[in-house]
Structures are given as C-alpha cells and as structure tokens.
Amino acid sequence: MDAVDVAVVDLALSGDAVRLDTLGTDAVEYPPRLRARLAAALPPGRCDTAELCQLDTEVGQAFAAAARHGLARWGGGAAGLVGSLGQTIYHWVDGGRCRGTLQIGQPAWIAEATGLPVISDLRARDVAAGGHGAPLAALLDSWWLAAVSAGSDQPPSRGTTVALNLGGIANITVASGPDVVAYDTGPANALLDAACLELTRGRHDHDPGGTLAADGRVLDGLLDRLLADPYYAAPPPKSTGKEYFNGDYLRTALASWWGDRPDDGRPGTADLLATLVELTARTVADACARHRADRVVVSGGGVGNRTLMSALARAVAPAEVVTAEALGLPSDGKEACLAALLGFLGWHGLPANLPSATGASGPRLLGSITPGADPLTLPQPHPQRPRRLLLGEVDRQLPTAI
Asked: Which Gene3D superfamilies does the UniProt record give (predicted)?
C-alpha cells in the first residue's frame, strides 16, 4: 500500500507464446493521507460504506494519475488498453476456502483519464469458480520459467526453479512438475511493516533497506511461537493476506509469548524486526525445500530489504538466490507487468488463471471491461492457448498494454 506500480508493456501473440517487452516501470507513491486511510481500513480496523466509497474513488484517481504518467513517459502518449489488479482491501478466507475478495480503485477514473478500455476486477471470477483468486502471478511465472527451461536466451537452471514474490505477503510458483503449484507462503513485509507502525507510534511504516533489523538479534522463543501457526503446515492451494497477518496478530503473539513478565523487558524494535525477518526467510525456505528448489528467483518490494535478502540466502542455501532481473523481468515492476499481461489475455479472449495453482474448477476468462473513449471492438479470440512467455522486442505497431 505504499505506492502504485505502473508498467508500460508491449505484448504480442505468436503461436503458443506471448512475447513481452517492458518499456518502463515506476512506482508512484500514494498521497500520504490516502496511504494512511488505506492502512486504517484493513482489519482489525473498521471501514464504513462512506469511507469505502471515498477510498474506491481516490484510489481510482491515483491509478489514473499513475497510468497517465506511464503513458507520457514510455507509451508515447498512446496505448491499447489498461489492466488493473486493484488495491486489495479485503480477502475473505474461511476454513481454507476463499469466499470472496475485494479490490478497490474504480476503473472508470482510469478510463476517463486515459481514454482507454480498462480490464479490472481480475480475481473475482477465479474465486467464483472455487479458486483463491491468487496467486495470479502463477501464470506469468510458469510461462516465464518454461521459456527459460526450454533454452531461451536466459541462463539455464540446474534443477527446479522457484519464482518468489516478496510483497506484503510472500508467494511462490513452482513449475517443475506436470501441474503448476503456486501459493502464499505467509507474510513477507506485512508483519515487518505492522511492527514498524506499532513500535514507532505511526512515525514509520517500514524499515528502509532493513537497517533496523540488521542491528537486532533473533528472539528464538517468539520465532518458535510464530512458526507454530497452522497456516504454514496447511496444504496448497491456499492464500492469505493482511486480514490475518496484521498488527492485532502481532500483538496477540507478543502477549502470548511474553506472558506476565514486566513490560520494561519487552523486546526492542531491532530485535522484533530481526525476528520477523527470520520468520519470512524461514517460512519461504521451508516451502522452497518442499519443492527441492535449486534456484529462487525473487521479485517484489522485499528485494530492497538487504537484511531480508541476506537471511533468505542463508535459509535456502545451497539453493541459489537471484533477482528477477537475472531472467529478464524487473523485480519491482513484475506485478505491474502481470496486470498488463492479464488484461491483454482477457482482451484476446484467453483464460488467465491456472486452476492447479488457485484451486479453481477450470480455466476462466478474467476481468470486467470498462470502455474507453471509443466503442469497444474486441479482437477475434486467439485460436491457440499460450504456454510460454518470451521476453524481447515486440512490433511497435501492436497495441501497448499498461
């Protein structure tokens, strides 16, 4: 919830492949007040209908500004369509099943600002089909890794490659078997950010570069209590979010671990952050070990946390850790590239979920279309379902997705 990720991407269909060329990516920060209100709307906070309406509007306007920025900087002022994953405000999981999911950011504001059709609400159809609506990145990851494994111009892997995204929640994609497996492993930055907010009384909402955590020591007793959460042992498909791993969750865990000991001996900021870094590294490493990972390709905001990346490298060893750039995609902008890809597939009448990853009952077309300035004219559905993602130059006469 720190910023709006935007990517301008050229895409083209060719047989069983989608060719993708990233023209540019950026992160456009939310206005500070909007950012604070979004954080306050998450559980355990309350969000009434008036606040939800205002947030939906203001996030949509922030998305529109980010889209215009991307178009002006890399799109030459023009594009074919916009794909928007939205800002998740609530992901409803009950008894291991996703019952619903809500992403805000009214697409009409994007369409009005850009004149382009917008494909949004990309998770709901998968949920309606019995899936978790996440991680949708499994599609991009599996096609991308398939191209690498098939001997593209990217460096080959020695064995099983796992794609890892470190956002608020960590998720992995494994494409080495007959079916793609992908799921949320647990918190990445969610509890770290919650701890910063709690311990600094709202002055800081994250630990830049992991500098505070680097000065701390891991509290083994607290770590053991956190690792005992049943989510980590649950089989996939599964998903989670800040509805579960939030400030209340952290306060409850601390109170349970600390018990009746005096408050003046409670852990300091650095020790708590070091423990939460180790929690993320350990839970990701355990998941990667279950799939016998030889290489872990990391993307997301967590890449910028040097302390987390160091802990991850130690935890997954002897597996190799590389960032997404090593295989041709931007670490910070991969989720925005995913939004463009999902929108592009929906525009061409192609399913964009992977049932083996999300748990849906079958492939589904994803998203709802908001028209732009002109009447909608959809292309004929592509006759062949893509299975690979090729990175490189795309014919500039083809529509650009953002």
From this structure: 3.30.420.40
Clarify whether residues 322 and 240 are in a common domain: yes
Q: Which residues of 62-94 are buried (b: 16+ CB within 10 A; e: fewer)?
A: bbbbbbbbbbeebbeeebbbbbbbbbbbbbebe
Domain membership flag for residue 149: no
Query: SS3 for 271?
Result: helix
Helix (H) or strand (E) holding 368: strand 368-370
Alpha helical stretches, state H, 200-303: 211-214, 220-227, 247-258, 269-290
- DSSP per residue, 17-62: EEEEEEEEEEEEEPPHHHHHHHHHHSTTS---HHHHHHHHHHHHHH
Model pTM score: 0.92
- By the 10 Å C-beta count (0-12 exposed, 13-18 middle, 19+ buried), 105 is classed as buried
Backbone angles phi, psi at 361, to 5 degrees: -75, -10
Residue-wise pLDDT tens digits, 285-334 = 999 999 999 999 999 999 999 999 999 999 999 999 999 999 999 999 99
Nearest partner of 237 among 87, 385, 129, 350, judged by Cα: 129
Q: Is the Cα dihedral 38, 44, 45, 48 positive or negative?
A: positive
Q: What is the CATH number of the domain that holds 82?
A: 3.30.420.40
Class of residue 224 by CB neighbours under 10 A (exposed 0-12, middle 13-18, buried 19+): exposed
What is the token pair recorded at 342?
């999902």
Q: Verify that 114 and 37 share a domain, yes or no.
A: yes
